[in-house]
Design goal:
Strand order of the largest sheet: 4-3-6-1-2-5
Order of helices and strands: HHHHHHHHHHHHHHEEEEEHEEHEHEHEHE
Radius of gyration: 24 Å
Number of helices: 19
Helix content: 40-55%
Structural class: alpha/beta
Distance between the termini: 37 Å
Number of strands: 11
Strand content: 5-15%
Shape: globular
């Protein structure tokens, strides 16, 4: 059975390996560029409804409009702009709006691009991103000019690339359940609400010859306008799915998404906070914590992460945003994340080191379910590799401050003793039941896990760290006979750098 588990996990590991060097935004950018390029190739074979020069002119015009609008608005409002967001929005619009054939066509595209970018900055006024930018731009421009989205990306020729890129994106963003819930609503309506629902060929055609997969993968999952908690995925997917699918309602795809965004804003708002830098703390060799002010009435659970955006005039291929786990406890007075500085460091981390006390960065998109079980009697084992110790620091500090006793065993692996962080905290936490074992300079394997965790059969394991470490630890646990259901992993491809 465990061999089958290992085999089943191979595709996911392959996806993680591809994703490893890319941030979510950069992955989405490359995916959309590849779709435009694929469409250009398809145009030579009459597989898409437009010529190659129409596609390129439309894309270039939208890229220029969105880039300029983003630059002007962010500068006017003095808000740091994500370097990829304007390009991503432009590329989405280029794949769903018809290329221009006259002056009015260029005006429609410009109106959609400007509206989309400006809508993003509602976030700076209300501390929350409300509407999917591309959907807002496409809908408003359509209503103003009476030229509605063509959704021409929904063709059989485009589907293979949509599926391949979609698997990478959904693995990266951990939104498979959200997309599956939406598609379930879509298919259920086709089966029970239409005359052709009993025809398998009809269902297949609706999946591969329409924009539904692109809509679900690219637009439905937009992180700042969709719920961050898995418990909210189903109602959000149902609302958007019904609006999208039920033709009698006469709701366009973009309007159905905006209605879903409004649900998220009201019920599961993704707040964005401006936090002030306090200080940098050296935790171990090459490992540093960055402490920021705590936003008023902010609450989180130990083990969760946030998206951090830092203003940069110059950036690199990894962009100016990161998803980083909170290493502070909810009971501490500030927000803190902890990172490792590689050599050479990314532009993001170099910019972190330039921060002065009082400087601001943006924190948003609180999410994550890598959290201790609610039942304090449940025995757990925490396995950390390198800077993967960060969520465990948050958990253990919280237990210590709350004086909550649990049977917790921490197995902490690092290249050397000098790279072990938070050792004093873990020593103090022995008073609440924490037992700590350190492994340095050696590879973590089955024997070491068995020695450090002799009662491994009775524990739930949490594994955090770099991709190769998490995969190795997971393999070792499965080979020991630990059930896959008793292993929870925390790995974000593209985390480092």
């Amino acid at each position: 059975m465990n061999q089958l588990n290992l085999l089943a996990r191979l595709p996911a590991r392959l996806l993680d390996g591809i994703n490893d060097k890319l941030t979510s935004y950069r992955l989405m950018l490359y995916f959309l560029l590849s779709l435009v390029g694929w469409a250009v190739i398809g145009s030579f074979f009459k597989q898409v409804p437009y010529s190659w020069h129409e596609i390129l002119i439309s894309t270039a015009w939208l890229l220029a409009v969105c880039w300029l609008t983003n630059k002007l608005v962010s500068r006017f409002l003095n808000i740091p702009a994500n370097k990829e967001s304007d390009l991503i929005t432009a590329l989405i619009l280029s794949l769903i709006l018809a290329p221009p054939v006259d002056f009015r066509g260029f005006a429609v595209l410009a109106g959609a691009g400007i509206t989309a970018i400006v809508s993003k900055y509602v976030i700076s006024l209300y501390k929350s991103h409300v509407f999917n930018p591309a959907a807002a731009g496409a809908y408003i421009a359509g209503e103003l000019f009476h030229r509605y989205p063509a959704w021409w990306v929904g063709t059989k020729f485009m589907i293979p690339l949509v599926v391949i890129g979609g698997l990478l994106i959904l693995r990266k963003m951990k939104r498979f359940s959200l997309v599956l819930a939406f598609l379930a609503v879509f298919l259920l309506y086709l089966i029970y609400g239409t005359s052709g629902g009993g025809d398998v060929h009809f269902l297949w055609r609706e999946l591969i010859s329409t924009q539904v997969l692109f809509f679900a993968i690219v637009m439905l999952t937009e992180p700042l306008t969709s719920p961050t908690l898995a418990s909210r995925f189903l109602p959000y997917a149902a609302i958007v799915g019904v609006g999208y699918s039920v033709t009698k309602l006469k709701i366009s795809p973009e309007l159905s998404l905006l209605i879903g965004n409004l649900f998220t804003f009201i019920v599961a708002r993704n707040r964005r906070y401006e936090v002030k830098f306090i200080k940098k703390i050296k935790e171990a060799e090459g490992i540093f914590s960055y402490l920021f002010s705590m936003p008023p009435r902010f609450r989180f659970t130990p083990g969760q992460y946030m998206e951090w955006t830092i203003a940069q005039h110059k950036t690199d291929a990894r962009g100016n945003r990161r998803y980083l786990t909170l290493s502070s406890s909810p009971t501490e007075p500030g927000l803190m994340f902890t990172v490792k500085h590689p050599n050479p460091a990314s532009a993001f981390k170099l910019r972190l080191d330039e921060l002065k006390p009082g400087d601001s960065i943006l924190a948003s998109h609180l999410s994550g379910s890598f959290c201790l079980p609610k039942d304090p009697s449940k025995k757990v084992a925490l396995i950390a590799g390198g800077v993967g110790i960060t969520p465990f620091r948050s958990m253990i500090k919280h237990l210590l401050i709350a004086n909550q006793k649990r049977d917790v065993l921490l197995l902490y692996s690092a290249k050397s003793d000098s790279e072990l962080a938070f050792k004093q905290l873990f020593t103090k936490a022995s008073t609440v039941g924490l037992k700590t074992a350190y492994i340095t300079g050696e590879r973590l394997d089955r024997a070491k896990i068995k020695t450090a965790v002799p009662d491994f059969v009775t524990r739930h394991f949490y594994v955090s760290g770099p991709l190769l470490f998490v995969n190795a630890a997971q393999t070792a646990l499965l080979e020991l006979g630990v059930s896959g259901s008793n292993i929870t992993t925390d790995y974000f491809p593209g985390y480092g750098g």
